[in-house]
Amino acid sequence: MADYPTKLADLPKEERSVSSGHRLCTGCAAGTIARLVGKAVPDKPFMWVNATCCLEVATTIYPFAAWHVPWIHNAFENAAATASGVRSGLDMLMKKGRIPQRDIEVIAIGGDGGTYDIGIQAISGAIERGHDFVYICYDNEAYMNTGIQRSGATMHAAWTTTSPAGEAVPGKQEFKKPLLRIVAAHGLEYCATASCSYPLDFVRKVKRAVDVKGPAFVHVIQPCLRGWRFDTSESFQVARLAVESRFFPLYEVYNGYKYVLNYPNPMMSKVPIEDYLKQQGRLRHLFKPERKQEILDIIQAHVDKEWEKLLELAEFSEKSALY
Amino acid sequence: MAKAKVLGMMGDFAVAEAAKLCNPDVIAAYPITPQTIIVERLAEFVADGELDCDYICVESEHSAMSACYGASAVGARVYTATASQGLALMIEIVYITASARFPVVMTIANRALSGPINIHCDHSDAMLARDSGWIQVFAEDCQEAYDSTIQAFRIAEDKRVSLPVMNCLDGFVLSHSIEPVTTLPIEDEETLDGFLPVRDPLYKLDVDAPIAQGLLALPEFYMEIKRGQQEAHLKSIDVIKEVIQDFGDRWGRYWPVVEPYQMDDAEVAVVTIGSSTGTGRAAVDELRAEGKKVGLVKLRCFRPFPVKDIQAGLKNAGAVGVCDRSVSFGSTGPVYADMAGAMVGRSGPIVKNFIIGLGGKDITIDTFRTMYDNLYADLAKGEVEEPVEWIGVRGE
């Protein structure tokens, strides 16, 4: 069993992935997520494959690169396919004795647009082929790099520039795509959801994913202060509410079928979704100029249904002799 | 002593044999007619243990080129093949790979682009990648396709070049035609007797010496980077010629970037690219026997465009017809456009464009006779009335 840090002070002080000097927004959690990934694998060299996204453009503006590790960007939709090539190249060069034999991890990362939408084919292909790599999706629920356009990850009713909150159509009409269940359906050994506001849980999951021989996937929620419209100091608070409200529960799926719930504790009383929504300017139209109770009820009902589904899967996983 | 063998091989088989000989570390490929036989054959080599290579069966051509990019970045020798729609799907990454200066060798079994969907030969797929920054070489026959494949790895991986190379062979006309192909008599398979050393990358992703690849370049640097890319591409012509020379000196087959045929006293000439060259030579022989002083110039290396060689190759011809197996809609054929550019500011021949053989339309000796007749007529008039003519269209 791997050794997991139990407090933040246990994490290595050394920065192993992104360095200071990057140009992410003040208060953006994407940088924190990237840093935590580096700290999750203190004892292992790794290479970083970055999809086109905020993290990419804000950390590698030529001639500067804010990275401590070998880093490569190709395009928007193909981080997983590029990672396949990196993995394959490294393995063959080691096999043929052209580079020293060592355990090198390949970590690919993309935003929700590059994962849920344009990149899902490449991700599905790479997982199906079984390459040994970790894919991390940092999900800020819209195309933030191009200026807040709706993606398959955007929550119901949210305002974006391509799902404006109008009189006739009050924000995005569709619901968030169930990404992790889609990934889990590939039957990979490990995939999990995480939140930047639960850093130790996130670090443990990245470490677990890195230890897997084969593909592993971590889906981490990253509230975007620009796109979601909240103060620069509130990223982690909003991310915490996403979990506590059961909107973005943290769970793991082993071998595609064994669901394990981590947070929030089902015994704790439910935090109403409204508490989460009220924090975000992108959902202001649900409260002002007048309260839109019908939409709030639809969102709450959807959250409740998804939560029940998850509890059932977790309960079933516990009881079934299969697992 | 290893001996050269003469084997009857389809073009696709010949290319697969040549690619195998070059020991790629990674192949990432996706099937598409008429290239499929290449990747099937390579899969067999890997399955039978004849080729020590990681063969990634990607889920699309886009991912094929993406994986090639990643594997080349860490220093592996990389190969793929595609055609037509496959090249169109991967084109985004085709550009990025050249810009990153990652050596990759890719074979295109030339096939018309949709629509309408068509599986037969023309050059519209390769011309889609004309501006991508890849070196582009067109083969006349299966032997040349075999030899070009081996040369391509050496050119791509030369540190003075460090660019991807696209080898084109005409779909079906070459890919599925059996011709005698003389294989290389190789003793040392690891380096092809020193012709193709193990890849030693200029830069690579290395955990002991981290670098970042694929950065964002804003207006302060984008143009400078593109200028550098152009310099590297233009200069690659010298290395290409050097490799052609070395290959020829070792194994006796020289494949010049531009090859004139019966041009010394030619009054009119056509410029060909790809498999129609052979038909063109036969037409020249027939017409010469009838007393007509016609010639032909084969353009083998299309990118970089060998301006000086082509100017020299045309000698004193009075009228030149440039054959294009594709068209830039609203303009001319792309080879003609480059040729016309090469003639600017020179008092040279009349130059016109023939669009031929789209979507597998047969190119026969009669096609060439029509073109030569047409050129003689223009030469007599002293001017070109119709700068772009389509040859062989029904009802015209």
What does this structure look like?
- The complex is a heterodimer of chains A (323) and B (396).
- By secondary structure, chain A is an alpha/beta fold.
- Chain A has a single domain (9-319), classed as Rossmann fold, CATH 3.40.50.
- Chain A has helices spanning 29-40, 54-59, 79-95, 112-117, 120-129, 179-184, 199-211, 225-228, 235-244, 273-277, 293-319; strands at residues 46-50, 71-73, 105-111, 134-139, 190-195, 216-221, 250-254, 258-263.
- Chain A has an eight-stranded mixed beta sheet, sandwiched between helices.
- Chain A is globular, with a radius of gyration of 19 Å.
- Chain B has a seven-stranded mixed beta sheet with strand order 3-2-4-5-7-6-13, with helices on both faces. Chain B has a six-stranded mixed beta sheet with strand order 10-12-11-14-15-16, sandwiched between helices. Chain B has a two-stranded antiparallel ribbon with strand order 1-8.
- In chain B, helix 4 links the parallel strand 4 (78-82) and strand 5.
- Chain B has helices at 11-21, 36-47, 61-73, 84-99, 124-128, 142-157, 222-251, 276-289, 307-313, 334-343, 365-381; strands at residues 6-10, 26-29, 54-57, 78-82, 105-110, 135-138, 165-170, 178-182, 212-213, 258-261, 268-272, 294-299, 301-303, 319-324, 350-355, 388-390.
- Chain B has two domains: 6-251, 3-Layer(aba) Sandwich (Rossmann fold); 258-390, Rossmann fold (3-Layer(aba) Sandwich), CATH 3.40.50.
- The longest helix of chain B has 30 residues, at 222-251.
- Chain B has eleven helices and 16 strands.
- The N and C termini of chain B lie far apart (58 Å).
- Classes of the chains: A alpha/beta (323), B alpha/beta (396).
- The interface between A and B is large, with 50 and 44 residues.
